[in-house]
Every structure is written in C-alpha cells, then in structure tokens.
Amino acid sequence: MRPALFALPALLLSAAVAWGGTPEEDYVAARDAAIAKIKKAAAKSRDADLSKMDQKALADLDRRLQPVVGGLSAKPYPARGKIATDTLVEDDVGFGVLDALRFAQGEGDQQAFVTTESLLTRWLAKPEDWWTKTRKTPPSIDEALSNEEFYTYAIGPDAAFTKTAELPIAKPDGATYAFAMLGGWAQDVGPNPNQEIIVALRKGGKVYIASETAKKYKAIPACEKIWKDAEAKANALYKTYTDSGAKDQKIFDAYNDVNGKADKDYRACYAERTPREAFFPELTREAQAIADRFKGE
Question: Which residue in 101, 103, 244, 263 could disulfide with 112, CB within 3.0 to 4.6 Å?
C-alpha cells in the first residue's frame, strides 16, 4: 500500500504543473480546456443545450482574465471590463474573437478593448483567411492593427469592418504604436453612413482598441452618386433576371458584377476624397482626442 501513499502527492504535483504557469498561461489553458469540453459535449449530442456550460466557462475565464489585463482609468470607460468573448461554442457567432476585456457602458457607443501583447501574439498565430491569403507567416501586432480585416475577426463577430480612410494621429505619451482610421461595420455592400473612428495603441505591453461614432463625418455627394448610378443599373438587371423566371444565370452574374464594381468604386472614391474634405481635420482631432485618453495607462 505504500506506493499509493506517494501516488496522491505525485498526482497533485502533476496538476500543479498543468495549471501552475503565469496567470495568462493559466487563462489560455482554461480557455482551451473549456472549448474542448464544450466541443465534446456537442459531438456527443447534437441536441445538447450548451448554454449553461458555455456561460459557466465564460464566467470562469472572465475571472481569470481580469488580473491579466487589469482595469482602465481612461474616461469615459468604466474601470472594470468584461470578457469580450460571447461564446465558446465553435461556429457560433462570437466565437474566436480577441482574448480581451471590453470596457463600455452597456451597449453604449464608446467602447475600448484591452488585451496584452502576448495574448494578441498568440491570437495572431492562429491561421485565419484575412492574413493567410496574402502571406505565409502571421502578421506582427503593428501590421495587424493597421489592417482593416483584423477588426472584423478580432472585435466584429457579426459584421465586416471596411476602412474609409486613415486618420493621421500622434502617439500618446508612452505609446510605441498608434493607428487610427475611419470606417464602418456592415453585412452587405454599398453605402454605410454609420461611420466610426477606430484607434489602436500599443503601450506598456498592452494593446488598446477604441471605437466610437465619428461625429464630424459627412457623406460626399460625388461618391454617393457613383453608387446611385450603379444601383439603378443593377436594379434594372435584377428586374430582367426576375422577369425571366430567375433562370438566366448570366444576367444574375452581371447584376452581381455591377454591385461589386460599384462598391469598389464607391469606397475608392471615399478613400481618395475624404482626406481633402473640410471635415477631415475635425475627424483627425476626434481620433487624436480618443488616443490621448490613454496617456495615463
């Protein structure tokens, strides 16, 4: 029986090694274990109700992530954030977003996501379409933060972010990188009047991503005309397609081509004209003001 006396301490030591890393490493291990557990439960029964298991795991991960990321003193954000991940169920909307805390007043317009450089580096190492289609190795943090598609995968699980124009800002005190842009979230092509400013900073081993409505943004008539003219042509093609009994694929393909080209031309117009518009300096000042909120972090 004596060997059994040594088995328990050995088992405890093994468990301590598995969960005895840094708080960040423990968070990652707990996250991966929870995802695997939920995936196993889903495979066992397609009709399984995973919501309770999911919410319990998220609450545990939130508790683990709080000391890793820490609080936020910048205003108008709350001092304490909440885990940005909505679900640990693979293929559900909200799965796989950035390991970060989201700081916002309810569903308010002003929000900030905060993570660590090492957590972001881990997240970037996972192959995703937005970077694997153009390169073989993961982007650096700075390269990711300046890529519009990064934000779709990182913080926008139910819509795609498209950049309208970059906004030149200065790095706040202590920041090693700063980037800002104007853009919008959408699930379809075409005009998007709901423009936001996104500001991304790297400072003190952490990464800050802030977004809010662009107050001084104005539509550009010349660019809006590009879309309206193409829309009229696309609508005529679609009517022809439906009148044919929705059987002529060539007409439908032409309809899609017109929409695709119109969206591309529309966005190119905004990218070219926005920096020359009277409201652009005001947008830049908005972005700088957002960045400067994080001086004390």
Answer: 103
What is the distance between the alpha carbons of residues 155 and 158, in angstroms, rounded to a whole number? Answer: 9
13 pLDDT tier (thresholds 50, 70, 90): very low
What is the rounded CA–CA span in Å between residue 144 and residue 121?
Answer: 10
The pLDDT assigned to 244 comes to 86
User: How many angstroms separate the CA atoms of 184 and 274, rounded?
Assistant: 14
d(CA 264, CA 212): 25
The strand pairing partners of 208, in sequence order, are 114, 201
Instruction: Convert the pLDDT of each residue in 192-209 to its tens digit.
Output: 899 999 999 999 999 999
The larger pLDDT score, comparing residue 203 to residue 248, is at: 203
Q: What angle do helix axes 221-243 and 249-273 make, rounded to 10 degrees?
A: 170
Q: Give per-residue pLDDT as tens, 226-238.
A: 999 999 998 998 9
Residue 179 burial by CB count (10 A; 0-12/13-18/19+): exposed, middle or buried? Answer: buried
- Check residue 189 and give its pLDDT: 86
Phi-psi region of 187 (alpha: psi -120 to 50; beta: other; left: phi over 0): alpha
Residue 206 forms beta bridges with which residues?
Answer: 116, 203
- DSSP conformation letters of the chain: -HHHHHHHHHHHHHHHHHT-S-HHHHHHHHHHHHHHHHHHHHHH-TT---HHHHHHHHHHHHHHHHHHH-----TTS-SS-EES----STTSTTTT--S-EEEESTT-S-EEEEEEHHHHHHHHHS--HHHHTT-SSPPPHHHHHT-HHHHHHHH-TTSEEEEEEE---PPPTTEEEEEEEEEEEESSSS----EEEEEEEEETTEEEEEEEE-TT----HHHHHHHHHHHHHHHHHHHHHHHTTS--HHHHHHHHHHHHHHHHHHHHHHHHHGGGSTTHHHHHHHHHHHHHTTTT-
